[in-house]
Amino acid sequence: MRGSIPGSATSSHPIIQPRTRRGEVARYLRRSPLAAAGGGIVLVYALTAIAAPFLAPHPPITQFLEDRLGPPSETFPLGLDQLGRDILSRVLYGARLSLVVGLVVVVMSGVLGTTVGVVAGFVGGRVDDILMRVTDIFFAFPALILAMAIAAALGPSLTNTMIAIATVTWPVYARLSRAQALVLRRQEFIEAARAIGLSDARIMVRHLLPNSLSPLIVQASFNMGEAILIAAGLSFIGFGAQPPTPEWGVMVSEGRDYMTTQWWVPTFPALAILTAVTGFNLLGDGLRDLLDPRLRRAV
Questions:
Q1: Domain containing residue 189: CATH number
Q2: Is residue 115 part of a domain?
Q3: Among positive and negative, which fits the CA dihedral 95, 87, 270, 249?
Q4: Tell me, what DSSP letter sits at residue 196?
C-alpha cells in the first residue's frame, strides 16, 4: 500500500493550527460578555472624546437664557442647565477633559511608580527598604483625602488636580513592578545579560521592564477609571476644575441644587461618570484574565 507523506493534504493526521493571539482575544470576548461590554464602552467613550467638537450641537459655554433649565427636548436632548447651556454639549466636551486627565495621570503615575518599583526590586538591600518605606507612607493615607490635601495646597485647577491624583496613585505601580522585578531578577536571561557585561540600567530597561508590562497594563486600565472618579470628586468640592469648564464633577456640583426639581441637570453628567468608570473597570477585569497565562489556558 502506498503511504501518504506526513503533513501533506492526504495524510491521515490533521494539521493542528497554532492558536493566534487574535483568536484567543475573539474567543475570550465571546465567553466574557462583560469584558466585551467594557471594551465597547471605553471605545465609544474614547471616540466621543476625540470627536466632541464635531458631535456637540453647540459650544459648551453658549447660553440660551430664555430656555434655561429647560427639560430634555428635540432641540436639546439632555436639557439645559441653570445658565441655559446645552447639557449634551457640555457632557461631550467633558468626556474629552476626563480622557485627558486619565491619560496624563496614568502616564505620570505609571512612569514614576514603575521606575521606583523596578529599581527597588532589582537593586534590593537598603535602596529597596528606603523606597518601599516611602511607598508605605503614601499607602497610609486614603487616596481621596490625600489628593484633596495636595490639590488644596497647590490651588484649584485642572493641572493641579492631575498632579494630585498622580501623586496618590503611583504607589500601586511601584508595588506591582517591584514584585515582578523580584521574580525576574533571578531568571536565567537576567544572569546571561549580566554575564555579557550589560549595565544594571540597561538590564532594567531592556529586560525587566518589558517582561513586567502585563500587570501594569491591567493596573493602568483601573487607574483610568479611578483618575476620572477622583478628578470629578475634587471638582465637585471645588478643588479641581473651575466653572465654566465643562467638567463632569463641576456639572454635578452646579446641578445639585436642582436635583429634586430639574433632575436632568446633575443626572446626565453623573451617568457619564458612572458609565466611563464602569467601562474601564470591566476592561481592566477582562485584560487581567486575558493577560494572565494561568487564566488564559481556560479561554
A1: 1.10.3720.10
A2: yes
A3: positive
A4: T
